[in-house]
C-alpha cells in the first residue's frame, strides 16, 4: 500500500451559527461524528440536495464530517482565478494539508493517520459549489464573475470529505501519514 | 451513474453468541450501526487484525456493519471447490443478492437502495479468511483441504461490507437498486 506524508498547515472550525466559513484554531479533537461544535458535527445529518436518492430532510449517516483541503490545490485554484491567495476558511475546510498536490483524487477508503492515534477515512471528493464562490467574490468586490468562475476553477481540486474512524487530537504542524487505498488488496 | 438491479434472495442474521454463522429470517430492519441483535451491530467496534494501523481493541468506527454476498459468486466458489453449494450462512452473510455477478468488485461509495427507503453504502471488498473455510470443511468431513482451499477459491468473490446510510426495512424478495460509484462524478 502506498503511503504519503503530509503536514497539517491549519486546523479550522465552522463554529459561527450563520456561516460555513471556518476559522483557524491551534488544535482540536476528532470525535466520532466529527469536531464537536462544528456545523458538520454529527453521526447523522438530514439528507440534502447532495443525496437526491433520499427525500430531503431524511436522517442519514453523516459521511461529510471533516473537510480536508490541499495547500497546493488552493494555490492552483488561486492562480486560475488570478487572485493572490485562496484561504481554506472561505471553503469551509477543517484541515489544510501540505504535501499532497492531488489530494482531491485520493481514493475513497484511504486513511489519514495522526500522531495522536486519530484516524480519518476518505469518503471521496468534495463538490465545488457556488457558496464559497460567493465568499471569494465578497473579498474581491471588483470581480463579480468570481462566484461562478470558482466552480470551474475548483473542479477536481476541491478537496475531500472524511469520516472519523478513530478519535484523537489534531494539531497544527502534525505529520499525517496517508495510507492510499489502491484497490489492489481487499479493504481492511 | 450506472445503475444495477438485483433481488434479495435471502436476509440473514448472526444472532447466535458463539458463531459468526448466520441464519435466514424473512425480513429485518437496518438501523444506524447495522442489524440490531447481529454480532456486527454497532456504530463502533474494537479494532482487530484487519485494522493493524490501530492498537488492537481501540474503539473505532464500524464500517463492517452489513455483509453482502452474490448468489452468482457463491456458485462460482462452490464450483471451484467442487462442492454442491456454498451457503451464505457459512460465510456470515446478512444479505444474499442475485443479479450482480461481480458484486465483490463493486466500487467503494456505491449505494444499495431498498424499496423501504433504506440505503447502504459499500465500504469495499470483504477479506477471504479461514473461518468460513473451517465451517465449510465441517460440512464436508471427507475434504480436510477445504479450509485453506476456500481462501484461494473465494479470492475476489467474497462479497462486500457496507454501512447503513439510511435506516429501513429489508425483506426477502426485495428489488435492490445499486447506484455504482463510477468516480467520474464527484461523490455526493
Molecular structure report:
2 copies of one chain form a homodimer. Chain A is α+β, with helices and mostly antiparallel strands and 188 residues long. Chain A has a single domain (3-37, 63-179), classed as PK beta-barrel domain-like (M1 Pyruvate Kinase, Domain 3). In chain A, 15% of the residues lie in helices and 31% in strands. Chain A is built from 3 helices and 12 strands. The first copy, chain A, has helices spanning 71-81, 130-139, 146-153; strands at residues 3-13, 23-25, 27-30, 44-46, 59-61, 66-70, 95-98, 111-113, 119-125, 160-166, 168-171, 175-179. In chain A, the strands form 3 sheets. Chain A has a 7-stranded mixed β-barrel with strand order 1-7-6-10-9-8-12. Chain A has a two-stranded antiparallel ribbon with strand order 3-11. In chain A, helix 1 (71-81) packs across helix 3 and helix 2 (130-139) crosses helix 3. The termini of chain A are close together. In chain A, 47% of the residues are buried. Mean pLDDT of chain A is 93; it is low at 184-188. The A-B interface holds A 32, 43-44, 47, 50-55, 58-61, 63, 107-109, 111, 113, 117, 119, 121, 123-128, 156, 158, 161, 163-167, 179, 181, 186-188 and B 32, 43-44, 47, 50-55, 58-61, 63, 107-109, 111, 113, 117, 119, 121, 123-128, 158, 161, 163-167, 179, 181, 186-188. Chains A, B: This is MOSC domain-containing protein. Chains A, B: GO terms for molecular function: catalytic activity; molybdenum ion binding; pyridoxal phosphate binding. Chains A, B: Residues 19-179 form the MOSC domain.
Amino acid at each position: 500500500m502506498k503511503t504519503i506524508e503530509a503536514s497539517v498547515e491549519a486546523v479550522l472550525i465552522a463554529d459561527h451559527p450563520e456561516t460555513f466559513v471556518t476559522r483557524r484554531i491551534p488544535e482540536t479533537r476528532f470525535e466520532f461524528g466529527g469536531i464537536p461544535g462544528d456545523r458538520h458535527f454529527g453521526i447523522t445529518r438530514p439528507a440534502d440536495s447532495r443525496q437526491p436518492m433520499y427525500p430531503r430532510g431524511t436522517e442519514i449517516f453523516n459521511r461529510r464530517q471533516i473537510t480536508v483541503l490541499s495547500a497546493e490545490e488552493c494555490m492552483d485554484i488561486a492562480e486560475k482565478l488570478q487572485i493572490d491567495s485562496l484561504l481554506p476558511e472561505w471553503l469551509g475546510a477543517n484541515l489544510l494539508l501540505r504535501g499532497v498536490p492531488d489530494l482531491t483524487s485520493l481514493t475513497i477508503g484511504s486513511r489519514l493517520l495522526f500522531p495522536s492515534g486519530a484516524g480519518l477515512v476518505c469518503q471521496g471528493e468534495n463538490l465545488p459549489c457556488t457558496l464559497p464562490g460567493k465568499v471569494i467574490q465578497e473579498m474581491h468586490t471588483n470581480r463579480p464573475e468570481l462566484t461562478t468562475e470558482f466552480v470551474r476553477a475548483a473542479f477536481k481540486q476541491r478537496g475531500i470529505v472524511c469520516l472519523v474512524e478513530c478519535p484523537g487530537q489534531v494539531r497544527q504542524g502534525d505529520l499525517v501519514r496517508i495510507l492510499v487505498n489502491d484497490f489492489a488488496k481487499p479493504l481492511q
